[in-house]
Amino acid sequence: MTPPLNIAIAGLGTVGAGTVRLIQEHGALLAARANREIVIKAVSARDRGRDRGIDLSGIDWEEDALALATRPGIDAVVELIGGAGGIAKDLVEAALGAGRHVVTANKALLAHHGTALARLAEDKGVSLRYEAAVAGGIPIVKALREGLAANAVSRVYGILNGTCNYILTTMRETGREFADVLAEAQALGYAEADPGFDIDGVDAAHKLAILTALAFGTEIDFESVHMEGIRTVTADDIRFAEELGYRIKLLGIAERTDDGIEQRVHPCLVAHAAPIANVEGVYNAVVAEGDYVETTLYLGKGAGAGPTASAVVADVMDVARGDCVATFAIPAADLAPPHPADLDKRVGAFYLCMTVRDEPGVMADITAVFRDEAISLESMLQRGRAPGEPVPVVLITHETGEAAMARALARIRKLTAMTAPPRMIRIETFYHLDQKPL
Amino acid sequence: MTPPLNIAIAGLGTVGAGTVRLIQEHGALLAARANREIVIKAVSARDRGRDRGIDLSGIDWEEDALALATRPGIDAVVELIGGAGGIAKDLVEAALGAGRHVVTANKALLAHHGTALARLAEDKGVSLRYEAAVAGGIPIVKALREGLAANAVSRVYGILNGTCNYILTTMRETGREFADVLAEAQALGYAEADPGFDIDGVDAAHKLAILTALAFGTEIDFESVHMEGIRTVTADDIRFAEELGYRIKLLGIAERTDDGIEQRVHPCLVAHAAPIANVEGVYNAVVAEGDYVETTLYLGKGAGAGPTASAVVADVMDVARGDCVATFAIPAADLAPPHPADLDKRVGAFYLCMTVRDEPGVMADITAVFRDEAISLESMLQRGRAPGEPVPVVLITHETGEAAMARALARIRKLTAMTAPPRMIRIETFYHLDQKPL
């Protein structure tokens, strides 16, 4: 057996503590599967006194996380501090610079600095691994980087944020409104006190930017991700969508188009029959479509100590075995420069919910706008009759361009009968490569 | 860049031809991702004259597939002939023996000789890879061997045979009977002229035996797989199951129990809410449950030229990069000897469909049998009233032992009112590790 792989872990929050526990509990199993022992030599975290429920005896404590990068005898540094900059970035750069392998769960860091870090890792001949950064326990990074490596990928999309999926699922199951369910999720610890990162789509966008680089062999291009969160989704929207045969999901979608790479995170209406529509609660799922493999789907828990530690340690074991695949599947120098598609050129169907005063001529005004923009309507729901009172009107359009839809929306907003801003949600239709709808 | 990886391909059927096409079409992509070129140096197949729609110019033709094993200049042999013995086995043994890496899609060979072949590969310091042998394009072998390597796996199960899933899906969608749908599937080329391998569960059992070895670190133990096919499933069963909230799927299930490793392939009733229940048509899916990652699911096409070639070439690329994980995740010498669980000790719920003459006292006779065996009933469906005529009676039991159920069935078979053999199908209840039903 090869000598042990000596690792240092920076950050002992939920994931860090879970990683220590996993390695200690499964020592013999890991050694058998990696063909060498995995030994935690040193750790670093903010508060040495805190009880984390793990046994740190025999493990050196380093007050300064950065010192782990150059600490003698360390083969790989596991960065579980988090954040796009600060100590996490300094540590990863220093560790790679010192010729140590790095395993990280840090999506923000990779979304902002992934290309540069991949170059640094390759210059130094070491691995930079980040399975835990995308979709928690699901081995989707490995699947895209290795399992589907023989394919030209056309699209990858998924439910990448468990907090949003939990909120949307709970809203649907209980009929409650967003703010109410968010407050409960915060009380239960499923959502952060400052929830913007999750509910505004930033976290999903970080993950999507990483998937895009992996799937398409491009430099990370987080700045080009179109981002909309779930704050504006209402209980009505979810109910109307259900009636029309759809479920509302926050999806991250990366697609190769004739115009470039499209990256977008926003709420979507997805047909009930699509497998992704049935991924509920804190589960994540990613669909990858390749030209030979066709459609594949990967489902599992996207967060939590156990699933995330599972992904972190899988990376550590790959490092232990000396697997040498490139950070983003192809050499960093060969990653194509960003070539973002213009979202205005996207064509798709739309859901639109308007709240209008129930008065004569309103429907004629609305439908005239769509006629003028040559947008044809697939269906319309109008509920309740309450002359003079606000009532919801729901429209589903046929396939139409984003630009035309944006123009129509701008005009509809100005209609005097409109008592609240209209809400637009894109409808995503997923097909197999053989063109049978999923 | 490293020098090219020179490969030889034995077998140019659907999968072999697809593999050649993929490598030729994606040459530059594969070279970028494997960091070296993949070059097909030689091929062998039965009929040199046949038009396979692929360009074999510049590739040497070997009349004797076995000669590929020792042909000079070959780094890896890709075996796509199939079959548990014969030339496929001879070739794989000879290639490994000659110190060449082997990639195969041959589930029968691995199910019967996997342990010995893994030992041979390790003795010779070469890789034996078989992603395409299980669930076609889904990278489930890689997921279990590497992606989930940090977990103690408790259970792995799935829809492993696309032909059976297609037949069951079509029966449900059309209400037609098994024999009718099978004949159509044969005409369409979805089922073999000799369909026993698929519909009797043998193919699924081959794949399950491989998953078991990978998941639990045991020697391959195909002989212990309990096997039942789908020939006896009727349109009535499918309809009754739907009414009761279940779908019928042929599952392969491998589970670590206190008594040993349970391996079984048989039709199952699965609750509609379980993700696996919604995997339809030719799709396969595998669920792997680990102690840290919890429940993960992998879905994709389980057969066909494209998906299978995707898996074959992914293995070739791992070989090209020099990845060195053991055949069944741990060294072959460390694989635990088979320790099959006694299926009689299994506890679960059952679906039972009986065809009885509608006459007084029948239900009393039936319920008396269950009372005597202490089997409690969850629900009962009795449709149609036709005094003196045969009518179906459907029962769902609460959790009960296999042995008690077998005794009850033996007695029920002998009741004089029974006009046809009763049909028993196991109900599988899937829980997350946190004990919430899926």
Could you provide a short overview of the structure?
2 copies of one chain form a homodimer. Chain A is built from 13 helices and 17 strands.
Characterization of this structure:
2 copies of one chain form a homodimer. The first copy, chain A, is of the alpha/beta class and 438 residues long. Chain A is 34% helix and 26% strand. Chain A folds into 3 domains: 5-133, NAD(P)-binding Rossmann-like Domain (Rossmann fold, 3-Layer(aba) Sandwich), CATH 3.40.50.720; 142-301 and 331-343, Dihydrodipicolinate Reductase, domain 2, CATH 3.30.360.10; 346-428, Alpha-Beta Plaits. In chain A, strand 9 and strand 10 (260-271) form a beta hairpin. The first copy, chain A, is elongated, with a radius of gyration of 24 Å.
